[in-house]
Specification:
It is a single chain. This protein has 2 domains: about 10-20 and about 470-550, Sandwich (Immunoglobulin-like), CATH 2.60.40.10; about 30-465. The protein has helices at about 10-15, 30-40, 70-90, 100-115, 145-150, 180-195, 220-235, 280-290, 300-315, 320-335, 350-360, 365-375, 395-405, 450-465; strands at about 20, 60, 65-70, 160-165, 205, 205-210, 410-415, 445, 465-470, 475-480, 485-490, 500-505, 510-515, 520-525, 530-540, 545-550. With about 550 residues, the chain is α+β, with helices and mostly antiparallel strands. It contains 14 helices and 16 strands.
Length: about 550
């Protein structure tokens, strides 16, 4: 055989099994660890099950001496995304994950706590039904001496002397959940589902700790919480769900109505902020379907079709600022455009081509990477800019450019241009890019850096994470020739249960797929792709059932 490529021997060595990972560098670990330690130390009242614990604050203001938890279930969604992706990255690198699993368990536990006690804060009966409050941080319930010592650690003197939160607001209705809170929590929970294995359980000593609904699996609990949140919005339900393992409603009550107007189950009034989830409801139930496998049946076909028509129209209607993030974010998790919710991923590339340029224009550059994680799509972030633009068709380069500018000490903005650089001068570069450089005394302080950590982890997951290449399973699939110059045949056992064939490169990017398999004999041409190791995946019921390694010369 004539060797056409000088790297063939290296590829063959990898193929034989001398190395089971496609080794690629990971990005800026030292700065990331600095951000993580900063988050634990200065933006958390503590990590654990107690009231106020395991919920990240938005800002840490050493000038005014206050730490603020504001709209913090949005930050909590990012926190879940960071922890889930961090677990996957550390696992792939063969590093310890104990601390990440502990934080992830208590972050989910905290979210259930905000759900279970929500009605109680409005003089109702406690219920784990999907209605939640924004936080439960209270100076009265915390050991303030211990908390302030933590928040002031490593400072030259005590610069923080008080806390502020939505929970401590005089107006009780400011505690209530809203649509944007729910969407960002679903996003974070979805990242957990995508990044951690179903068998992952948190142990304290030798004993596995259960969540409030008696679930042990971290991945399954993320699914349970999404189910409760979405079903509550769909039904506007006021059913009380107790912590009883025999309660059939424990995983959420779903009727056949199509309401999607978020209500307080104690007052029966619409929540004070962001009550109307109807116009985005198609994206919400589509996200639930792709993340949990559960559909949302309804007999209210008129409202369902109306909501579908609205969401489809949003493909060509760009909304201002944060409103458009909700639309982009939901389509990144549900693949609704152009025709509606799909039972397969036929329109993955279509959605990626819309999400990429629109996210770049709006300043939500992380959303295409979210779509990559959920659907294995390509990233079209810089595809619509003029060809002479820096980083044209190079989203990875653009992401690295943004991350390089993030300050070592973390993002901050104290007005009067007192910030490290314009890009990282918002409370959250991922959620509120319109606040960059903003001179607004309502948002002064150091910020929690979850935006940077999410950007970084998504970059590593999608572009730089070593991809495990398992030993091929015998039987069911025959791929030949292997190695190949580009054209291969994939023959399947007629009795094999399958719904899709996918081929990814060593960076984890999808390069070819056949989502509806009709033939047992399939021909694929990869000659336009660079030489290297590729992985053929057989997928059944949205789960990868079998792998096979191939080499393209």
């Amino acid at each position: 055989m004539k060797i056409k490529n000088p790297y063939l021997f290296i590829l063959l060595a990898l193929f034989i099994g001398l190395e089971c990972y496609a080794q690629q560098r990971t990005w800026d670990e030292e700065k990331y660890e600095g951000y993580r330690e900063r988050l634990r130390l200065h933006f958390m009242a503590g990590i654990g099950p107690e009231m106020g614990m395991s919920i990240p604050a938005m800002s840490w203001d050493t000038v005014n001496g206050i730490v603020k938890w504001s709209d913090c279930t949005i930050d909590h969604g990012h926190y879940l995304s960071v922890l889930g992706s961090e677990y996957k990255i550390l696992s792939a690198q063969g590093k310890g994950t104990d601390e990440t699993v502990r934080e992830l368990f208590y972050a989910l536990y905290a979210l259930n706590r905000l759900d279970y006690f929500a009605e109680y804060y409005f003089d109702g009966e406690k219920s784990l039904n999907g209605f939640f409050v924004r936080d439960d941080v209270s100076e009265d319930s915390l050991d303030m001496e211990e908390v302030l010592a933590r928040l002031n650690e490593n400072l030259p003197y005590y610069m923080i002397d008080s806390l502020a939160s939505d929970y401590m607001e005089a107006e009780p209705r400011l505690k209530e959940e809203s649509l944007d809170q729910a969407i960002m929590l679903i996003t974070g929970l979805g990242m957990v589902i995508q990044c951690v294995p179903p068998e992952l359980v948190y142990y304290e000593g030798r004993n596995p700790l259960p969540f409030q609904d008696f679930e042990l699996s971290i991945q399954q609990e993320a699914e349970n919480i999404i189910t409760r949140i979405v079903n509550y919005m769909k039904e506007g339900d006021t059913v009380v769900v107790g912590l009883n393992i025999n309660d059939p409603n424990l995983l959420g009550v779903q009727g056949l109505n199509w309401d999607f107007i978020i209500k307080n189950p104690v007052t029966y009034e619409e929540v004070f902020r962001g009550a109307n989830a109807f116009f985005l409801s198609t994206g919400i139930v589509g996200s639930k379907y792709w993340l949990t496998g559960q559909e949302s049946p309804t007999t209210d076909t008129f409202n369902q079709q109306t909501a579908l028509g609205v969401f489809l129209a949003l493909e060509n209607l760009i909304l201002p600022n944060f409103q458009d993030l909700k639309v982009l974010n939901l389509d990144a998790m549900s693949n609704i455009w152009p025709e509606g919710m799909q039972q397969d991923t036929s329109f993955t590339n279509y959605n990626a081509q819309i999400i990429g340029p629109r996210s770049q224009t709006q300043g939500y550059e992380w959303v295409p990477m979210l779509h990559q994680v959920v659907f294995g799509s390509r990233n079209y972030l810089m595809s619509a800019v003029p060809p002479d633009t820096l980083y044209y068709n190079d989203p990875e380069g653009y992401y690295e450019y943004l991350l390089n500018m993030a300050p070592e000490e973390g993002p901050y903005n104290y007005n009067d241009s007192i910030y490290p650089n314009w890009e990282w001068s918002s409370t959250s570069r991922t959620i509120h890019p319109e606040r960059r450089g903003q001179l607004n005394t309502a948002f002064t302080g150091h910020y929690n850096g979850l935006d940077y950590m999410l950007f970084r982890n998504l970059l590593v997951l999608n572009f730089q994470l070593p991809v495990m290449i398992p030993e091929p399973e015998q039987g069911h699939v025959h791929i030949y020739p292997n190695p190949s110059s580009g054209e291969i045949c994939i023959d399947l056992d007629p009795n094999t249960s399958k719904t899709a064939i996918r081929i990814i490169n060593s960076s984890g990017q999808l390069v070819w797929s056949q989502e509806q398999i009709k033939n047992h004999h399939n021909r694929v041409n990869l000659s336009n792709h660079p030489p290297g190791i590729y992985i053929v995946q057989l997928v059944s019921n949205h789960k990868i059932k079998q792998y096979q390694k191939i080499i393209i010369l």
